[in-house]
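## retry 2 of 3
previous attempt timed out at serialization; input unchanged, resubmitting
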Amino acid sequence: MNDSSRRILLIIYIDWLSDFSINYIVHYKNIYILFFLSVISTLSLYSFDLYESKKNNINLNLIIGSSFKYEADSFPGRAGFELTEAEIKTSGTYLEKLKYSLSFDLSELIGDDPALKNAYIQYNFADPFRIRAGQSKIPFGQEYSLGVSDRVYITHSEGSKLIVPDRSVGTIISGKNIFNSFGYKLGIHNSSTYEEEENVSGHIVFSGNLFYNNKGIKTGYELLYSSDETFSHGAYLQLNLPLKKDINLFFIGEYLEQRYFNYHWNHSLYTAVSLRVNAWEPLIYFDYFNDNVGYDGVEDKLIPGLGFNVYFLNDKLRLLCDLRTEYLFSQPEDYTHKIHNHSLTVKLILEI
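## retry succeeded, writing output
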């Protein structure tokens, strides 16, 4: 198949996906059928590099994910399919200096317009100094993104999401490969936007991230100050170590603290470890959130879980099975066990 044929198929596929998503999902909500047909229709597309030369390129990527989830916290239990990820992204570079990125979250398509996820331009003066303007992830908190190649598995718990900012409009100055190992990110954004909260206008957020990254080891310190009188900081460690041929060890750990001035700290701890052997990757994780102040109705949570990933199609397709137990506790003055929920999630994610 030549490049022209691929581009024609790509245009047909995007048009089909948008029409089919709106008409079929809204009326029937058989999301698992949408995912299956999406996989089949994209297998013939070898590449999504729309344009590439020695110094310039334009890319188009799709991430589609569908999951089946069973919750055993009620009798006889609840189960159903869900479109968990549907993202389309275009990015490119010009003369190896100017970069752009534009992406939409199509999983919000039912009843809403596609949500703008990223929209920024970035100029790379050199590795130690780059400047970005537009809407992107605030440089605080490790982003547990949805793609396959990012080697990330489980999202934050509901409580932890309240500490980690989501995307907002602003400016980021960053650098990497300083002394071949160090990097930094400094950001200023116009609002305090969190994954589980609506935009709070009228606030300014300052954030920073200083890290070491070399030979599969990444560790750093991060902080955030918002004009709504909250201060957060934390530390993280990531390991991505090849042990033998086709055997890799992956670990991520992050500890965050959030403080409302003159009040108590909120705490978040997330750890995950996996061992990939060829296409199989068993994993285990631990997620804890301690809510002392600031979030009415959010209780302390402890979430242990285990599962595995299976990779197909040169790591473009991933099957994830995740079994977790969610323990909810009362407020610290009692700190007695209250309730626990069990859930099983089976997810397919395609990234091309």
